[in-house]
UniProtKB/TrEMBL annotation, chain A:
Keyword annotations from UniProtKB, A to Z: ATP-binding, Cell membrane, Membrane, Nucleotide-binding, Transmembrane, Transmembrane helix, Transport
GO annotation, cellular component aspect: plasma membrane
Residues annotated as transmembrane: 18-37, 49-75, 95-120, 127-150, 170-189, 219-237, 291-315
Organism of derivation: Antarctobacter heliothermus
Membrane topology: Multi-pass membrane protein
Subcellular location: Cell membrane
Name this protein carries in UniProt: Branched-chain amino acid transport system permease protein
SUPFAM superfamilies recorded: P-loop containing nucleoside triphosphate hydrolases (SSF52540)
Gene3D superfamilies, sorted: P-loop containing nucleotide triphosphate hydrolases (3.40.50.300)
Primary site of residence: membrane
Source species taxonomy: Bacteria, Pseudomonadati, Pseudomonadota, Alphaproteobacteria, Rhodobacterales
Superkingdom of this protein's organism: Bacteria
Record-level Gene Ontology MF annotations: ATP binding; ATP hydrolysis activity; branched-chain amino acid transmembrane transporter activity
TrEMBL record, chain B:
Transmembrane segments: 12-34, 54-74, 86-108, 132-152, 181-200, 212-239, 246-269
Any single Gene Ontology cellular-component annotation: plasma membrane
InterPro entries linked to this entry: ABC_transp_permease, BCAA_transport_permease
CDD domains: TM_PBP1_LivH_like
Organism: Antarctobacter heliothermus
GO molecular-function term, one example from the UniProt record: transmembrane transporter activity
Designated name of the protein: Branched-chain amino acid transport system permease protein
Taxonomic path: Bacteria, Pseudomonadati, Pseudomonadota, Alphaproteobacteria, Rhodobacterales
Gene Ontology process terms (BP): amino acid transport
Stated family: Belongs to the binding-protein-dependent transport system permease family. LivHM subfamily.
UniProtKB/TrEMBL annotation, chain C:
Any one GO molecular-function label of the UniProt entry: ATP binding
Similarity field: Belongs to the ABC transporter superfamily.
Domain ABC transporter per the UniProt entry, residue ranges: 12-238
Key words, A-Z: Amino-acid transport, ATP-binding, Nucleotide-binding, Transport
Descriptive protein name: Amino acid/amide ABC transporter ATP-binding protein 2, HAAT family
GO biological process: L-amino acid transport
PROSITE patterns: ABC_TRANSPORTER_1, ABC_TRANSPORTER_2
Keyword flag ATP-binding: yes
Superkingdom, natural source: Bacteria
InterPro entries associated with the record: AAA+_ATPase, ABC_transporter-like_ATP-bd, ABC_transporter-like_CS, BCAA_Transport_ATP-bd_LivF, P-loop_NTPase
UniProt organism field: Antarctobacter heliothermus
């Protein structure tokens, strides 16, 4: 085996060292800060650092995962109010302060979980998440208003006793919390598991078709980050000694987004700097020129969104992200992780499948069954329903009638990731990969469900099935594991997607025009790979393809679809010499 | 009787406020988060008209013109680069809203302004004494709805706009100037928001942040309505009516969140809102 | 019939055209000319670049290399709007109608102003009288064949000099195909309209076209006048 680790493994350890140095420096600053800063600065910075924690949560949701949220203020407000209400109405002692800490995290987490469950369901849109993120702070704020003496209504709660730390102590507590949370966030987003967030932002459908339950991840993320925001609320309620309805409102939520955007989404450090910088400058300048300062921030924000969507951090780091040569892990062949099939039922069994859009029937009375080791080509003119048929095999909600069974089990009502978990892999027509990840990271995504990734570190080995490694070698991608996918050619992306699908260890692969836009050599390579996969590895494959020369070379069986009906199902010889097929391909066909 | 009138007129006011937002969302698929700022601009047009001692009704054409001109600039310089990034368009227009709000503050100060009521007093209607202006708002909403239906159904501009809504690729392939249609639509949307701002002045206090309070409600209604003005009218009647009922019988504060919560629930059950019907 | 690029006298001439999506070239250095007043059929299997070529001509896809000449003048930057002004009409294949608009509005949208509406309706009435009888009906409620006739009718509204039609015969019954073929032939003979049809339907092509070419993987694989041996030659290219 050639040594693949030579190329670049240095950045990994260097990055860890850099992070450690930064963290230590930040901690030192936070500890000595009170010796140099005046009262005013300490106050302002304490508040800004607490807000910076919120900016981190916004960044994880929006910058990394792509969920634009105005709702983090609501969780912050919930945490702050839980604390203040406990201390006001029950009393203040160390036990209650500890209870407040627990409640200020648990309550927002529960709200977050509920909100996440409401927001992320199969078929939900990004827009809906943003809508809900507006509703939540409005609801929480109105509940505070209607809480009477319990919540202090519009004047908020004031005059309770928090942790007795003094100005310096709160500055240090807020600072250390911020550093701890920022480091945890940085470690997480750079870990193998953290890359899933970027993968979801890049291409959520591909995640689902790799068997990853993206909705569960997003719900979990919303709940956890709700808890973090609640913790920030706890700090704020203690440090400021006053909570007000505005702390939970959506205006504050939009401010968090502004800071995150100006600092640089998707960087963790950027939003922290943005939140502290703008918070501090606001306090300094707003006394002299209050409205002009807001005007400036607003203008800067608009200009940044249009021209520099990745924020000021993008200026500082230049094009680092684009050229980001990730680490190239070592390839290791893994024994099959999936149990061998035991069922006697056909691998795929379709009975009387129907699909219609309104009154228009796209598929009618399709009956088809596929056994392990078969390579079935699905051919037919444009609009015959081939891609629709593929979709009905991977989405339990797609069909309008009939039944699709995988190993004897009906897929009705299943979502794609459940179907993938039952051994179906799907390769799309336009290569569906993750543009912001490296080749190795894409492959690791495909292994997520079989081989749980670490949430703290980047593994230096990448375990794949032997067949997947073989295809990597054949396509030359094994030498490009650390390369960013955005730099790959069209053909390389097609190969990568195929390797990703094979890495799922599927029993059946669905391929939609795998050779579209490929060169002659690339076509031949893919053809060889498919033959090996089916004939030698016992995987079944269904292929939609227009290039009939290609189909003739590799198929063990051809199915002809015409105007939504299955008109012929036979060997290559049968189909090529059939009169109906000739007629269909010369146009018109039969009525 | 008063309750029914309250429900109808509340729905009418919501409809007036939301039309501008729906016009833009329907054709351009962009959420104009500066919508609140345009309402404020419209309201301050009424303030300015009053300062200048002009007929208060003149504020209506003035606000429409001001909204449309600002809309032209906004579409050209801020929204156009962001058509392919709808989430960023929300943010950029929100930023623009901040800017406009601050400019108004610099110009007029942050204090609450008062303007003369366009139609003061009350009328007796079927034995009930009711605010004349709220009844006027109902008439204005109906006029606005009918005027807009005529614009969409009866004119070439409307036909082009509907074509862009239904199938922009085809509209472009048939040689329609989609860029111009977008600009004009955006101007009409912002113009209508300005108009709505004037119409709001007798009902609420006028201050630099007044628009934001209306923004979220209109946004929710538009999300529920999708692309259709009929659906918007329906959404305003149902959600606005529910708001009045909750405010009257349960609590005014909970009434304030009725529209948002109902919209969220409706969209969860039927992601396309009412426009599917 | 080897001279496929007689640039000067052609209604539409493609000179070494390369185009595609992103950095994938679908059409590769293709040259072709369509003569004034002829019906030209571009054939080829799916995925060979037929629709891509049409979209490139229309300016919906960027021209990467080469030139496209309309009446001898480059069409650079004309775009769909400029082409409509130059009396070029297009009948697309995917989602070709506004389903929720009436027949009247679907026809109206092809024109710049309502001034020419009646002249357009007259032209349509000559070919497909059923459309002008049912102007108020929604396009989506028409049958598949009627919708195809509406697409052709719309492209005739602006009295085009050049008509580009993408796979109009797909999935149609022979009687409907015959009506469309009739309309196009009459149009060509009566008004001298040049027509480029992109097709897979062989008998339709044999019935109306003057010349043909077969596209394979983005290049012209074979071409000629419609003659006795055409059917066999084209079938050779289209068969499995």
């Amino acid at each position: 085996m050639p040594d693949l680790t030579l190329t670049n493994t240095v950045p990994q350890s260097r990055r860890v060292k850099l992070l450690a140095i930064l963290a230590v420096a930040a901690v030192a600053l936070v500890i000595v800060g009170p010796l140099f800063l005046d009262r005013f600065a300490l106050n302002v910075l304490t508040r800004s650092m607490i807000f910076a924690i919120l900016a981190i949560t916004v960044d994880l949701l929006w910058g990394y995962t792509g969920i634009l949220t105005f709702g983090q203020a609501a969780f912050f407000g919930a945490g702050a109010y839980v604390t203040a209400m406990l201390l006001t109405h029950v009393g203040s002692n160390p036990a209650l302060l500890a209870l407040g800490l627990v409640l200020s995290i648990v309550v927002p987490m529960l709200i977050g979980g509920a909100v996440g469950w409401l927001t992320f369901y199969p078929g939900s849109s990004d827009f809906y998440a943003t809508i809900i993120s507006l509703v939540v702070p409005i609801v929480i704020t109105q509940l505070i208003y209607s809480g009477g003496t319990w919540t202090g209504s519009s004047s908020g709660l004031v005059g309770y006793w928090g942790i007795n730390l003094g100005l310096d102590g709160y500055f240090r507590l807020a600072g250390l919390s911020l550093v701890a949370i920022a480091v945890a966030a940085l470690v997480f987003v750079r870990s193998d598991a953290g890359r899933i967030l970027t993968a979801i932002r890049n291409n959520e459908m591909r995640c689902a078709y790799l068997g990853i339950n993206t909705n569960r991840i997003k719900i979990l993320l919303t709940a956890i980050l709700g808890g973090v925001a609640g913790f920030a609320g706890y700090l704020y309620a203690n440090a400021s000694g006053v909570v007000a309805p505005e702390n939970a409102g959506f205006i504050f939520g939009t401010e968090l987004v502004v800071w995150t955007a100006l600092g640089g989404r998707g960087t963790i450090v950027g939003p922290v700097v943005g939140a502290i910088g703008i918070g501090y400058l606001s306090a300094q300048l707003s006394g002299d020129l209050p409205f002009l300062w807001q005007l400036l921030i607003g203008t800067l924000f608009v200009v940044m969104i249009i021209f520099l969507p990745n924020g000021l951090a993008a200026l500082a780091t230049g094009f680092r992200e684009r050229a980001r040569a990730g680490t190239a892990p070592r390839l290791v062949a893994e024994a099959p992780a999936r149990p061998h099939r035991e069922s006697d039922a056909p691998l795929l069994d379709i009975r009387n499948l129907e699909k219609s859009y309104g009154s228009q029937k796209v598929l009618e009375d399709i009956t088809l069954s596929v056994q392990p080791g078969e390579l079935v080509s699905l051919v037919g003119p444009n609009g015959a329903g081939k891609t629709t048929l593929m979709r009905c095999m991977t989405d339990g909600a797609a069909a309008s009638g009939g039944i699709v069974r995988i190993n004897g089990e009906s897929i009705a009502g299943m979502v794609p990731n459940q179907i993938v978990a039952r051994g179906i892999g799907r390769k799309f027509q336009v290569a569906s990969v993750f543009e912001s990840l490296t080749v190795a990271e894409c492959l690791r995504m495909a292994r997520t469900t079989l081989d749980a990734p670490s949430i703290v570190k980047t593994s230096d080995v990448l375990g794949l099935p032997q067949t997947a490694i073989d295809i990597l070698r054949l396509s030359g991608l094994d030498q490009m594991l650390g390369t960013s996918v955005s730099l790959l050619s069209h053909g390389q992306k097609q190969s990568l997607e195929l390797v990703m699908v094979v890495s799922l260890e599927p029993e059946l692969i669905l391929l939609d025009e795998p050779t579209a836009g490929l060169t002659k050599t690339e076509r031949t390579t893919i053809g060889e790979v498919l033959k090996t996969l089916t004939a030698e590895c016992g995987i079944a494959a269904i292929l939609v393809e227009h290039d009939l020369d290609f189909v003739r070379d590799i198929s063990s069986r051809i199915v002809v679809l015409h105007q939504g009906r299955l008109v012929l199902d036979g060997t290559v010889e049968d189909v090529v010499n059939d009169d109906i097929v000739k007629k269909i391909y010369s146009g018109g066909g039969h009525e | 009787m008063t309750l029914i009138l309250d429900m109808l007129t509340s729905a009418a006011i919501l409809f007036i406020v939301a039309t501008g937002l729906l016009t833009i969302f329907g054709v351009l698929k962009i959420i104009n988060f500066a919508h609140g700022a345009w309402l404020t601009v419209g309201a301050y047009c009424a303030v300015a008209t009053a300062h200048m001692g002009l007929n208060p009704w003149l504020a209506l054409p003035l606000a429409f013109a001001a909204g449309a001109v600002l809309g032209l600039l906004t579409e050209r310089f801020i929204v156009r680069p962001l058509y392919s990034r709808p989430l960023d368009a929300i943010l950029a227009t929100w930023g623009l809203g901040i800017v406009i709000g601050q400019l108004i503050t610099l110009w007029f100060g942050r204090d609450v302004q008062f303007t003369a009521n366009l139609i003061p007093g009350t009328v007796d209607l079927l034995g009930t004494t009711y605010s004349a202006y709220r009844l006027f708002a109902l008439v204005a909403a109906i006029a606005l709805g009918l005027g807009f239906s005529y614009l969409m159904e009866g004119t070439r501009l409307g036909l082009s706009a509907r074509a862009v809504i239904m199938n922009e690729t085809l509209a472009r392939a048939l040689g329609l100037d989609t860029a111009k249609i977008r600009t004009v639509t955006f101007m009409i949307g912002t113009g209508l928001a300005g108009l709505a701002g004037v119409l709001l002045t007798p009902l609420t206090s006028t201050d630099p942040t007044m628009g934001v309070a209306w923004l979220v409600g209109s946004f929710m209604l538009v999300m529920v309505a999708g692309q259709s003005f009929g659906a918007l009218a329906l959404a305003c009647l149902l959600l606005g009516g529910a708001q009045v009922i909750v405010s009257t019988y349960v609590s005014p504060i909970l009434g304030g969140i009725t529209v948002a919560v109902l919209a969220a629930i409706i969209l969860r059950i039927s992601p396309k809102g009412f426009s599917r019907a | 019939m080897n001279d496929m690029s007689d640039v000067k006298t052609a209604k539409l001439a493609l000179d070494n055209v390369t185009s595609g999506y992103g950095h994938v070239d679908v059409i590769k250095s293709l040259s072709l000319d369509i003569r004034r007043g002829e019906i030209f059929a571009l054939m080829g299997k799916n995925g060979m670049g037929k629709t891509t070529l049409l979209k490139t001509i229309l300016g919906l896809l960027p021209l990467k290399k080469g030139r496209i000449l309309l009446d001898g003048k480059p069409t650079d930057n004309l775009g769909p709007k400029g082409l409509v002004d130059a009396h070029v009409a297009y009948a697309p294949q995917d989602q070709p109608l506004f389903q929720d608009l009436t027949i009247r509005d679907n026809l109206r949208i092809a024109l710049r102003s309502d001034r020419d509406l009646n002249a357009g309706f007259d032209r349509v009435q000559g070919h497909f009288p059923f459309l002008t009888d049912r102007l108020g009906q929604k396009a989506g409620t028409l049958s598949g064949g009627e919708q195809k006739m509406l697409i052709i009718a719309r492209s005739l509204m602006m009295q085009p000099d050049l008509l580009l039609i993408d796979e109009i015969s797909e999935g149609l019954q022979p009687t409907v195909i015959a009506r469309i073929a009739d309309a196009l032939k009459t149009e060509c003979e009566a008004n001298g309209t040049t027509i480029l049809i992109v097709e897979q339907h062989l008998s339709f092509v044999l019935g109306i076209a003057d010349r043909w070419a077969v596209l394979k993987l983005g290049v012209i694989d074979d071409s000629g006048d419609i003659a006795g041996d055409t059917q066999d030659r084209i079938l050779e290219h289209l068969r499995i």
